[in-house]
Write a structure and sequence with these properties.
This protein is mainly beta and 246 residues long. It has 3 helices and 19 strands. It has helices spanning 2-15, 17-30, 38-41; strands at 35-36, 55-57, 61-63, 74-78, 82-85, 91-93, 96-100, 109-112, 115-119, 134-139, 145-150, 164-172, 176-181, 194-200, 205-210, 213-214, 218-221, 224-231, 237-243.
């Protein structure tokens, strides 16, 4: 049982490697740690200054582990803003305390609405090249944005400019979401040649457009719309998801 649980979260770590590597590059430039206390991200919320049970994993993910086997159920403080359960995609309002009673194999994690998280296909070690598209998980909300940084991960070539950096944004309107994939900065060539863009929210979709033209490379599921075959050349792209009237 415990081996299966460890395997599950090791695999989650590998899938999140683009997000983690991007966050560690930020740490190297700014000194802000990837694993940070809540009050560092939400300094105006004084109630969080004594919270030592939860932490932010980067600026967008909140993790609230169960610290003791006998601690069931327990409370989680959600800072201001809207949040999305990373596993169930349940929407939760912030500025509240919720009670959770997770089984041993569930680590409560929440994504701040307005985040774009890059993920990769599963690998078994960091030297293995992923196979398939880079996934962008888009959680629409205020000031929606995300970043991606990549280099070869082994040498100091990045100091000579051999890296890739790009920025993503999304905008919400009454009946659509627009995702902008920014142009790549730097000459580094990543392992992927296309993107899969997963937008969390309503699944009742009227049309999806890629760079202004209708595309059929998408599917709507439970709580998300997945747009496939978005080419990656380093050039910018725009994706527009037009929902049925909400």
């Amino acid at each position: 049982m415990h081996e299966a649980i460890r395997k599950k979260y090791i695999e989650t770590r590998y899938r999140l490697m683009p997000y983690i590597y991007t966050g560690m590059e930020e740490t190297s430039r700014t000194g802000i740690p990837l694993m940070r206390p809540l009050f560092l991200e939400f300094p105006a919320e004084t109630s969080l200054t004594t919270n030592g049970e939860e932490y932010m994993f980067g600026s967008t993910m909140l993790v609230a582990p169960k610290l003791w086997p006998f601690l069931q159920p327990y409370e989680i403080m959600l800072p201001k803003g809207d949040w999305v359960n990373y596993v169930t995609v349940e929407n939760l309002a912030g500025s509240q305390t919720i009670q959770v009673d997770p089984p041993l194999d569930v680590l409560p994690g929440y994504v701040r609405a307005g985040s774009i998280i890059p993920q990769q296909p599963l690998v078994h070690n960091v030297d293995e090249t992923p196979k398939g598209p880079l996934e962008l998980r888009v959680y629409p909300g205020p000031n929606c944005a995300g970043n991606l940084y990549m280099d070869d991960g082994n040498t100091f070539a990045y100091q000579k400019g051999e890296f890739l950096r790009t920025h993503f944004t999304c905008e919400m309107a009454s009946d659509d979401v627009k995702v902008h994939i920014g142009a790549a900065e730097g000459p580094y060539h990543p392992w992927f040649t296309d993107l899969q863009v997963s937008v969390y929210g309503p699944a009742s979709v009227r049309e999806v457009r890629l760079d202004g033209k209708p595309t059929k490379s998408w599917k709507a599921g439970s709580g998300s719309v997945v747009v496939n075959d978005v080419p990656w050349t380093g050039a910018p792209h725009d994706i527009e998801i037009q929902y049925n009237h909400r």
